[in-house]
Specification:
Layout (H helix, E strand, L loop, with lengths): L5 H6 L13 E2 L10 H13 L9 H21 L6 E4 L2 H15 L5 E5 L4 H8 L7 E5 L9 H5 L6 E7 L11 H10 L3 E5 L11 H4 L3 E5 L9 E5 L1 H6 L23 H6 L1 H14 L8 H28 L4 E2 L11 E5 L4 H9 L3 E2 L1 E3 L4 H6 L8 E5 L6 H14 L1
Parallel strand pairs: 1-11, 3-4, 3-5, 5-6, 6-7
Antiparallel strand pairs: 2-8, 7-8, 9-10, 10-13, 12-13
């Protein structure tokens, strides 16, 4: 298997050459990644020469519309969904709010939705608000280890459940849930499966078609791009839900779940994410026959995950000798490289202390109040969260471990 070329990767991110960031290590990637050069270049070009109403007759206007279409088509191809099954919005939280409102209009009295206490409030809150409209909200609760057990889900499913909403992985526990197995249970009960992929997608774009989810959401500002959210839904779901966009856009599936006019420049810049993935594929697998977009994305996904697992091991080993509770699995293969720590000191205080060593991370509840309470942790006390991705260096990991040993 190819080994990730870190020098090539970091050369794709202008942040690593920025003098203002010298001496600082980015360990808050779960809150937002650095943007790759391909995205920045596209965004700059759009604002410089294509900041017009797109799809017009003049060359700059037509070019702007073409770049927006390119972002949709190339990302849809890599995610293994149809071009008309992908919608852009200002954030995943906003996309979820619109989606939940559409379900509210479609559901009947007595219908139910299932949410988890493993997800964070920003993306489960819109579903929970359906209780205010008279619908039943059932909670799929984690077990003592913080895992979502299938047998516990089965006890919640019946013919009244319309949709089950759960994370691909938590933003604190970070355990990677078995999406295909969960989706199979949900579909067997006649319900739809909605997956929050915000905390998973930064570690390799998922093959949504293979996962089988009816709805999958993630954020491009955590996948090296601009501040947008992507909502993927099957045509069957899009056609069944009431139109949330302008009435004159109801006939366009990709616009039915977008109430307002989209951010043209940021959508166009999202094509840079596909540029970056293709650049990684071409650099690392140039000797292989040219593969299609799903296969290219899958190879890069595996390259990223292998790199991240290799980095996660030393951090977990370092923490094993310290007086701290690590949330989630201790096997790097079972989790994303987002590590939440509970210590006698408040999470925010630990993050402030680590900042003096140039470690950029965070402390608090991270919108996961229900999760923390279920694990016996006071949300006001919070946790320290360190999160990284494939572009993190071994030197940065060594610096993190040394800083953690000092403050813990």
């Amino acid at each position: 298997m190819a080994t990730l070329d870190l020098d090539f990767v970091r050369a794709q991110f202008p942040a690593f050459a920025d003098p203002s960031l010298r001496g600082l290590a980015h360990f808050e990637n779960a809150g937002g990644s650095f943007a790759c050069a391909q995205v920045i270049e596209r965004l700059t070009r759009f604002y410089t020469s294509r900041k017009l109403q797109p799809y017009g007759d003049t060359a700059p206007s037509a070019a702007g519309g073409a770049e927006m279409d390119e972002a949709r088509s190339r990302l849809a191809a890599m995610l293994n969904v149809g071009e008309d099954e992908i919608a852009f919005g200002p954030s995943t939280t906003q996309n979820t709010y619109v989606l939940a409102n559409a379900f509210r209009q479609m559901m009947q009295p007595g219908d139910a939705v299932v949410v988890t206490n493993q997800d964070h409030e920003a993306n489960s809150g819109p579903w929970r608000r359906l209780a205010d409209e008279g619908f039943e909200v059932r909670e799929w609760r984690m077990n003592a280890e913080g895992h979502l057990a299938l047998r516990d889900l089965e006890a919640l499913l019946d013919d009244r459940v319309r949709v089950v909403c759960f994370p691909h992985c938590s933003n604190l526990i970070a355990q990677i849930n078995d999406v295909p197995a969960i989706v199979a249970k949900v579909h067997a009960a006649g319900a739809l499966a909605c997956v929050d992929g915000v905390s998973y997608a930064p570690h390799g774009l998922p093959d949504i078609g293979a996962l089988g989810a009816d709805i999958y959401l993630f954020s491009t500002y955590k996948t090296y791009g601009p501040h947008q959210g992507i909502l993927c839904a099957t045509r069957a779901v899009i056609d069944a839900l009431p139109n949330q966009g302008h009435w004159f856009n109801a006939k366009y599936p990709g616009k039915r779940l977008t109430p307002a006019g989209p951010d043209h420049a940021q959508i166009a810049a999202c094509a840079g994410i596909a540029d970056y993935i293709d650049a990684l594929y071409a650099h690392h697998f140039e000797a292989e026959p040219q593969a299609g977009p799903v296969a290219r994305a899958a190879r890069v996904h595996d390259l990223m995950r292998a790199r991240e697992m290799a980095l996660t091991g030393p951090v977990l080993e370092c923490l094993s000798d310290l007086d701290v509770r690590v949330l989630g699995a201790l096997d790097p293969a079972d989790r994303a490289p987002t590590i939440a720590l509970h210590h006698a000191r408040k999470g925010a205080d630990l993050a402030a202390d680590l900042a003096t060593d140039g470690i950029m991370c965070g402390g608090g509840d991270f919108y996961a109040v229900r999760l923390l309470e279920a694990m016996g942790i006071d949300p006001a006390h919070g946790v320290l969260r360190v999160s990284f991705t494939h572009y993190t260096s071994e030197e940065e990991i060594d610096g993190l471990c040394a800083a953690l040993q000092r403050v813990l």
